[in-house]
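Engulfment and cell motility 1: structure tokens wanted.
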Amino acid sequence: MPDEHVKKQLHHLGDSHLDCCISAQRCILPTHFNACGPCSSWVKELKVWWSLANHDQFALQHADSSNFYITEKNRNEIKNGAILRLTTSPAQNAQQLHERIQSSSMDAKLEALKDLANYSRDVTFAQEFINLDGISLLTQMVESGTERYQKLQKIMKPCFGDMLSFTLTAFVELMDHGIVSWDTFSVAFIKKIASYVNKFASDISILQRSLAILESMVLNSHDLYQKVAQEITIGQLIPHLQGTDQEIQTYTIAVINALFLKAPDDKRQEMANILAQKQLRSIILTHVIRAQRAINNEMAHQLYVLQVLTFNLLEDRMMTKMDPQDQAQRDIIFELRRIAFDAESEPNNSSGSIEKRKSMYTRDYKKLGFINHVNPAMDFTQTPPGMLALDNMLYFAKHHQDAYIRIVLENSSREDKHECPFGRSSIELTKMLCEILKVGELPSETCNDFHPMFFTHDRSFEEFFCICIQLLNKTWKEMRATSEDFNKVMQVVKEQIMRALTTKPSSLDQFKSKLQNLSYTEILKIRQSERMNQEDFQSRPILELKEKIQPEILELIKQQRLNRLVEGTCFRKLNSRRRQDKFWYCRLSPNHKVLHYGDLEESPQGEVPHDSLQDKLPVADIKAVVTGKDCPHMKEKGALKQNKEVLELAFSILYDSSGQLNFIAPDKHEYCVWTDGLNALLGKDMLSDLTRNDLDTLLSMEIKLRLLDLENIQIPDAPPPIPKEPSNYDFVYDCN
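Answer:
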């Protein structure tokens, strides 16, 4: 007779039968056991086999650390060799835990809450517990139920802290399933959670979960945003950034980002001013970016989000046209002229000098590089960049006055065709910088591309502009450009900026020095080198040679892709609360026959061994690989579906009748590597942009290597003519 404890385990071997492990003994189930039937029939047959009563009170569960129940929805995810456990049903388990967490015994209550925090990760259990009004019970415990224990805190502080930690963990896990709306929670609950941010600063687990709950409230409910914004202040969050725990710092910045993102337009600038007063930027720079530790991916993502939200404050000015009749706006243009050409040169304001003054203004506006010399305000009616361009010009003129005057006077002394128009250049440059930094776009779900240098100055965008406008003037001179070359100069400047940004300079000064090394001459060298590497040889012999060696190069690329799949990649599972998602790892077996994958607690350092990955998928079972909007998880997740960047990184493996393995690649490169590798495994063509680029590069290199001996020899377009046949063949020697 099997042990009644949860040691009853089933070992799924395939489609024909199941093994079960009872304590240390092993017995094979009857061959007639139907593993293809519904899950309820499995349990029913096991009840008969083990003589158990009330089979509806039992269910099958994964025996690994996940403890997830087997249902009709997830049964296809059971892999050959997976160990299952016969245990109490989700409904029975939920009922028992619902009663246990209300126990009067502190020890029993603590153990029950620990179990609840573990089981709540499973959506099947979560649904049953929520049906018992479990969420309300947990919120009541947080609001008032824990207070009766606070008198015992001095003598039972560790116990109280653990109890609260498990309660909040269970709450977070249950809410993550999206079954219950966030709008249902009371102000008392919000106040209690907000109080934990201050009360339990030394208790990492409670602080983490409290911050996570606040972030989710803000992101998922407009009403809760307003209530949370009243209860939590930036001043309360700042001290958590000054600690040494990077995870707490990440959660804290995530809450700030959530408040920033959901703030009404009229409140967002006000919040930015508060962040500036509290010196958030310098605190992040000192305690996060320049701390003596590496920045993990999640922190990088939150810094990227903060960077995007900060720059998005410029959108209003970027989309505001100048009103030519607005005297205050016109005064800014007068100020630009005054700083450049000195107020002492003003004529007397007598009635006889009005025409002379207008003529002088027109001349000066031309020297300033405006397109409309008579009324420069008309230059700022295009959006983008709108008034943002004028703001940048005024900032440059006031804060870098010497450089501003030098640029204006230098160009006003040149010939008309060689002058670099400061006004026109500033407008186009501002528009370009907004495009580069994607001002006005919402932050991506997956991107972590933050730039440390933007955290080194309170007016980082304006300083960025000041450096780039000086670069533009320098490049204009190096190119000896005329007004007809304006667009060419802008293209070169954009390339210089983009190349400097890819090096991730740590400060604006470092960015400036990077640009110094990227002169126009250097850009020409880089372009020439790239052009030589990608040169398209059009002669017939070269094309024939390309065609001959292309299969060899494609095979080389295929092997590289498969080798990368063997090394494996760490992926992230995304849901409504991105930071709480788990990592998972997938890699191909060395013999290219099986994909090994499994969940991880954190992002790994280096490769993950095959034996530590619990699940397997034979390559032979793969039916298809789909990408983008065709992926099942992109159809299911409405929020993610709206995000173009996530859509471009999504792909899925379809197997069996309805099985699927869903991926969201960390970046475009990994997306190309995996889709190429999977297509190669299925015998299909590799069609990614990365493959095309690699093929062009490797083909060009291989052809150049093969043509080394023909250097300086002209290769004819056509093969040499075949000579006429000889009049006789007397010269042929007969070896016989």
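Residues 540-567 form the longest helix (28 residues). The two ends are 92 Å apart (CA to CA).

Cheers.
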